UniProtKB/TrEMBL annotation:
Catalytic reaction equation(s): guanine + H2O + H(+) = xanthine + NH4(+)
Biological function: Catalyzes the hydrolytic deamination of guanine, producing xanthine and ammonia.
Chain's gene name: guaD
Organism, scientific name: Salibaculum griseiflavum
Cofactors: Zn(2+)
Keyword Nucleotide-binding set for record: no
Keywords associated with the record: Hydrolase, Metal-binding, Zinc
Keyword Transferase belongs to the record: no
A matching Pfam family: Amidohydro_1
Domain Amidohydrolase-related: 67-428
Residues passing through the membrane, by range: none
Record lineage: Bacteria, Pseudomonadati, Pseudomonadota, Alphaproteobacteria, Rhodobacterales
Protein name per Swiss-Prot or TrEMBL: Guanine deaminase
Biological process terms in GO annotation: guanine catabolic process
Amino acid sequence: MTDILLLGQVLWFDGDPLAEAWQRVCRHSSRGGVLLREGRILATGEADALRRDHPQAEVTDYGDALILPGFVDAHMHYPQTGMIASWGKRLIDWLNSYTFPEEMRFGDPAYARAQADVTLELALANGTTTLASFCTIHPESVTAFFEAAEARGMGVVAGKTCMDRNAPEGLRDTPQSAHDASKALLEAWHRRGRATYAITPRFSPTSTPEQLEAMGALWAAHPDCLMQTHLSEQTDEIAWVRDLFPSARDYLDTYEQHGLLGERGLYGHAIHLEPREIDRLAETGAAVVHCPTSNTFIGSGLFDMEGLKARGIPVGLATDTGGGSSFSMLRTMAAAYEIGQLRGTPLHPSQLLWLATEGSARALHMGGQIGTLTPGAHADLCILDLASTPAIAQRSTRAEDIWEAVFPTIMMGDDRAVREVWLSGQRVSRA
Ligand code: GUN
Ligand code: ZN
């Protein structure tokens, strides 16, 4: 197999720009390159040196376009693609009015596969190469998503969403059936090719303590799996959790009491946290996932990036489609910036780009494998055109450094900015 050399502007990181001074850990080459061999990254650096050292490599020159790792969307719901941008409700009413009726349809494997295909094509068109998705209670919905990802060579995370109360007839399983179906699915899919299984209790309000216990036991028996759920998204949700679990110290404790708090746990939203919850997340090494377009769209609140990062809690970034209002991680970064502004702590473009790539990858325990241009990582790449629309182009021509050149695309860019995507060292052809 011949080596492939991609040339363009390149940005890469030697560390976490939210944990250390971003100036110290960011590397930029205005004439750089990324060398690919057998689906992996072999080297990243200056174009001239890579050309000289690898004269046989097949070259694709992207000019001034920016070569980045593919984006990593650390929390989304592929079954909600068909009802994204549904108007005017807050979380619980939004779930009952829009989400549950749509999720009811995923017992049909053909419908599930069609929605999985649409979602993955939209993700790739937006430069996203890995997604962590909730499915529905139907095992067919999980199989459909993993099969659609496998057909494209995409590394994804997914799991059967488990609910045994406070959901309509047709969308409820039981503690035993949730356990057994999840077990069968993880045995079929976890670490098959690039697939990762996440044990997926939807959130405490839709699971009995018995179901949470069964999920905790399954995770204890398969500790290499991830576990994904939701935590403290809206204040009325938290009040409901308090009523449903009177003996729990707080929302996180409803998971902790049942063996569902751990290092490989992923807690979506995590906005309205008690000090004890923050302490426990920090002590256990669990990750939280920031879903900014969802938090503004459903009216949930302002995530405390600075406070949680200061405690060393890993944070991923995510669209949360269809509570989120966009498939684009560019739009998601823009929303994260805006939420930072409203809190008085704006994120630097380097920090936004890191969160959308390596930050999410680390939250998913895939650091070094995806979301990075470091040698050995999968060659999943997103090539960004930094002048994709007239509005962006007129602004970026005045840029005096790479940050001024890329920030207009973060704030105003969409799928038109995605020039090309590579998956496991293969150029992705547009559907
Ligand atoms: N909490 C429980 N389920 C969901 C969901 O589907 N979307 C969002 N945003 N929050 C949830
Ligand atoms: Zn969600």
